[in-house]
Write a structure and sequence with these properties.
This protein has 11 helices and 10 strands. With about 400 residues, it is of the alpha/beta class. A 5-stranded parallel sheet has the order 2-1-3-4-5, sandwiched between helices. A 5-stranded antiparallel sheet has the order 7-6-10-9-8, with helices on both faces. Helix 1 packs parallel to helix 6, helix 3 packs antiparallel against helix 11 and helix 4 runs parallel beside helix 5.
């Protein structure tokens, strides 16, 4: 397996690696670092969830790939995958685990997890998995970038056409050259109605003075994706001639294929002088459109910021719920501990009273015995004194 070939797809990708086993982290992360642009590591599911959302908040995009274990403290791999796929349903996730639980595997696949690696992972399978992953994600990213560019271009073009539409002769045609759209000024200048023009070729307004080679060059340029610019002499329905500076160009779809053609013509006859005021109006409206566009973009940015906050609050709420659950468990355990302490204290007081009673009993018994001994001693002493008195008298 050639690592250089794999890096062609993964070198610009960012990955989040979630694992609680330090030895596994050390081994796998060293391989990931050699493949990916950035590798961020989280030691459990809860930290992984926080890292995932922080990355989005800081970069305005998600990780390209997430690699996670299943059995982890606080938040396990399945719960982590659920939350990530709620936030980003298209997230590419690879699960790695030592357990071969079919039910867990089925649940992960039903969630939308892309790949599953069983520990210990063979080197060949590991690299093949990331090669396939890199191809899919890098291709998806390129398509997204192109789509965004095309959408941005088309949006700008639509804004420009809306402005130019008021002072220019505009028409659109399909890939066969059939007219699909004409603006009001086109109809006004050509003296044809919209119904008479739609579906026809542009030669309906072709003047006999124009050489056929000109139209041949126009067609060759626009079918090759180029823009044709030049002057055209056209003929209106009533036979009147009019001249125009023409800009004819292709429009591309998100796959960069030509989808239609647009022709924008500015009159170069006396009508152009009469329309000068319209051009001034266009400039004014264009500037106003820019201001409106700026305001719209600001509103979009504000809404996106609020959306980020909502997602952030959802993450905080989820984390708080986890901490709340842990607090409830700790509170229950504390209650049990307090009850045990009360029982022990009660037993200790009973034991203490029993001991006191026994000690008092022993003391009382000792007092009685000592008292009896004292009386005996007094009797003996008294008898001895009497004997002494008798002897003295004798």
């Amino acid at each position: 397996m050639n690592i250089k070939d794999i890096k062609e797809y993964t070198k610009e990708l960012n990955i989040l690696y979630v694992e609680d086993d330090l030895e596994t982290i050390e081994h796998v992360s060293s391989i990931l670092t050699s493949l990916f642009l950035t590798v961020n590591i989280a030691n459990d599911g809860k930290l992984g969830l926080e890292a995932y959302n922080n990355y989005y908040n800081n970069n305005d995009k998600y990780y390209d790939v997430v690699l996670t274990d299943v059995d982890m403290p606080y938040v396990n791999g399945i719960e982590l995958c659920k939350y990530i796929l709620i936030s980003n349903p298209s997230q590419h996730i690879i699960v790695i685990s030592a357990y071969n639980d079919k039910e867990k595997l089925q649940e992960l696949l039903s969630l939308g997890v892309n790949d599953f690696l069983h520990k210990p992972v063979k080197s060949e399978i590991f690299f093949k998995t990331f090669e396939k992953c890199g191809k899919i994600v890098s291709k998806k990213n390129k398509i997204s970038e192109k789509l965004y560019f095309v959408q941005e271009t088309n949006q700008n073009l639509a804004t420009l056409l809306d402005i130019v539409n008021q002072v220019a002769i505009i028409s659109k045609s399909d890939l066969e050259g059939n007219i699909t759209f004409v603006n009001d000024l086109f109809c006004e200048t050509s003296k044809y109605t919209e119904e008479e023009l739609i579906g026809k070729k542009h030669n309906i307004i072709k003047h006999t003075d124009m050489p056929s080679e000109i139209y041949k060059h126009i067609w060759e340029d626009i079918t090759e994706g180029k823009v044709w610019r030049g002057k055209l002499k056209n003929k209106a329905k009533d036979g009147e001639s009019y001249y125009a500076n023409a800009n004819i160009f292709p429009i591309f779809d998100h796959q960069e294929n030509v989808s239609q053609y647009i022709a924008i013509l500015f009159l170069s006859t006396e009508e152009e002088l009469r329309n000068r005021e319209f051009k001034k109006k266009v400039i004014s409206q264009y500037q106003e459109s820019k201001r409106s566009d700026f305001k719209s973009r600001k509103m979009i940015d504000d809404l996106q910021a609020k959306l980020k906050n909502i997602k952030h609050y959802e993450t905080i709420a989820f984390s708080l719920q986890l901490e709340k659950d842990e607090h409830i468990k700790s509170k229950k355990q504390l209650k049990i501990t307090v009850q045990n302490y009360i029982q022990l204290e009660k037993k200790y007081r009973n034991y203490k009273n029993e001991v006191k009673v026994k000690i008092d009993s022993i003391i009382d018994r000792n007092k009685e015995e000592n008292f009896a001994k004292d009386e005996t001693f007094i009797d003996i002493v008294g008898e001895e004194e009497n004997n002494c008195d008798v002897d003295s008298k004798q």
